[in-house]
Automatic annotation (TrEMBL):
GO MF term set: ATP binding; sequence-specific DNA binding
BP term (GO), one: regulation of DNA-templated transcription
Matching Pfam families: AAA_lid_14 (PF25601), HTH_8 (PF02954), PAS (PF00989), Sigma54_activat (PF00158)
Organism from which the protein derives: Gracilibacillus kekensis
SMART domains in the record: PAS (SM00091)
Keyword Transport: no
Residues covered by the PAS domain: 7-77
Protein name from the UniProt record: PAS domain S-box-containing protein
Length: 530
């Protein structure tokens, strides 16, 4: 630790209150710091002391002897100009590496020294206090005497413990009694109720020449990151169940994602239509919901409508339902299927009639002007947010995997802790045509198929897509879990093949549209491109 006045600034008020004079001297015998008591004994202000050689005030200071021998020197000497007799104690001042940094001098008038008759001088006690506090540099601390009386405590210490009940304060006092009795330092921890922080209480005995003179206590706070992470995950799971998202749920740190997130934040305060462009599976619907939840409409309804729904439904009935249900809310129109110009014009006419509804659009490719009604094309071109495909933001893949891992651990009550680096490297080499949705499904498959004793995702699990081995069924999926997983993936694949057209998908699967919607709700498959 370097010697300068800044080191003592933290404890300036405490040092000025001590009844002993304290002077800090560097290796060149220059005074670098002093308390008010020393200034009073020297009859000089700090501005006159700082930077001066200690020899200007004392005839024969013992600084050189202390620096050479690294031992404490106690003596009586005269203050120049006044012939006032002082009792001084010179001690080597060391940093936490035990490297000599200078000399710490304690002093008091001889007449005051003679008044004290205790076996252990107060100067020893105060020296230990100063030395300990300078080395630990803790804000929240207190000093307790050998008789267990509190000598002093910092404001930070009082602020920390005044908020708790007497039970906690009694516990901290017990730590003092145990430390004084054992004469050994100790570290104890506690977590206050309804707190995310863990408090470490460090208690250390202060000794001089083998004799106990008191103890020092200080506290350090540690954030409970694991618990915070669990709470954040729980909040995100609740928002997912409620179909609500926030911009902080958009995972990624690449420039493209940061730009998209900031654009969304800016457009959220506007009522103008916004187009979100990105391949299937890049998160268009999630971003649309996040924009809605960031806007002043967040407490109003949000509805997603696929362009395929327009083709499959009675337009008049659908538009009437939207205008009544989503009044003052947000409608997300996902162009998952090409619309004829007639349908485009009808949609545009409906949009122009809705002065209180906010419209957000989603599309997986760049609009081609020849395929669009000029008016609708112009509307889509005004404000755009582009979501890059996963293959163009692979540096975000570890963050996405970590988020999915935490989510599915909660979902399936698993304990998957780590993802091996080989897995991340392998995944970053893939094309990911299904983008984030495909990655999410892959992580879900691995965690769902993993045994309760598996704590790490490995390359072996990535390639282990064979049927389960019933010979070890206690650590494998149950029959129902295997059936559900297969059915979910089969439905997702069918929806992707039919561009999320539910009528065609239901026909392909040989089920009713109503039954398909039931299955999608059961397996939490979004009703449209994700």
């Amino acid at each position: 630790m370097k010697i300068n006045s800044n080191n003592l600034q933290k404890y300036e008020k405490l040092l000025h209150k001590l009844p002993l004079g304290i002077i800090l001297i560097n290796m060149q015998n220059k005074i670098v710091s002093s308390n008010q008591t020393a200034e009073r004994y020297f009859n000089a202000k700090a501005t006159h002391l700082i930077g001066k050689d200690i020899h200007e005030f004392l005839e024969n200071p013992s600084t050189e002897e202390v620096k050479q021998l690294h031992q404490q020197v106690d003596k009586k000497e005269l203050l120049k100009g006044t012939n006032r007799k002082l009792v001084t104690s010179y001690s080597p001042f060391l940093n936490h590496h035990n490297t000599l940094q200078g000399v710490l001098m304690l002093l008091e008038p001889l007449e005051k020294f003679n008044q004290r008759v205790s076996n252990i001088t107060e100067s020893d006690f105060y020296f230990e206090i100063v030395q300990e506090l300078l080395q630990t540099q803790k804000n929240a601390f207190r000093i307790v005497m050998e008789n267990k009386d509190e000598l002093l405590s910092s404001k930070q210490w009082k602020a920390e413990f005044d908020q708790y009940n007497t039970h906690i304060q009694d516990w901290v006092n017990q730590l003092v009694y145990q430390t004084i009795r054992s004469r050994r330092k100790r570290t104890d921890s506690y977590q206050p109720d309804a707190s995310l922080d863990t408090i470490d209480v460090f208690t250390k005995p202060l000794q001089k020449n083998g004799k106990l003179i008191g103890c020092v206590q200080y506290v350090t706070k540690h954030e409970n990151n694991a618990l915070k992470q669990e709470l954040d995950t729980a909040k995100k799971m609740i928002r997912n169940l409620e179909k609500t998202y926030h911009l902080e749920d958009i995972i990624g740190e690449t420039p493209e994602i940061n730009i998209a997130r900031e654009q969304a934040r800016l457009y959220a305060d506007m009522d103008t239509p916004v187009l979100i462009r990105g391949e299937q599976g890049t998160g268009k619907l999630m971003l649309a919901r996040a924009i809605h939840m960031t806007s002043h409409r967040k407490y109003l309804p949000f509805l997603k409508v696929n362009s395929s729904d327009l083709i499959e439904s009675n337009l008049e009935e659908l538009f009437l339902k939207i205008s009544k249900k989503i009044k003052n809310g947000t409608v997300y129109v996902n162009f998952n299927q090409k619309l004829t110009l007639d349908y485009q014009n009808k949609l545009l006419a409906f949009i122009n009639e809705q002065s209180t509804i906010r419209f957000i659009y989603g599309i997986s490719h760049t609009p081609v002007i020849s395929e669009w009604s000029p008016a609708l094309y112009d509307l889509l071109q005004k404000y755009q947010i582009i979501l890059p495909p996963l293959k163009e933001r692979l540096s975000d893949l570890p963050l996405l995997v970590e988020a999915f891992k935490i989510y599915f651990n909660q979902e399936y009550d698993k304990q998957m802790i780590t993802v091996e680096n080989d897995v991340i490297d392998y995944w970053q080499k893939l094309n990911w045509s299904g983008n984030i949705t495909e990655l999410k499904l892959e992580v879900e498959r691995i965690i769902l198929e993993a045994s309760s004793f598996t704590s790490s995702i490995s390359l072996e699990q990535l390639h282990n897509k064979k049927f389960i081995d019933v010979s070890d069924d206690e650590n494998q999926l149950s029959l129902q879990q295997a059936i559900d997983l297969f059915e979910k993936k089969y439905i997702v694949k069918a929806l992707e093949q039919q561009n999320f057209n539910k009528t065609k998908t239901a026909k392909m699967l040989g089920v009713s549209v109503r039954n398909l919607y039931y299955k999608m709700e059961k397996y939490k498959i979004e009703r449209g491109a994700i």
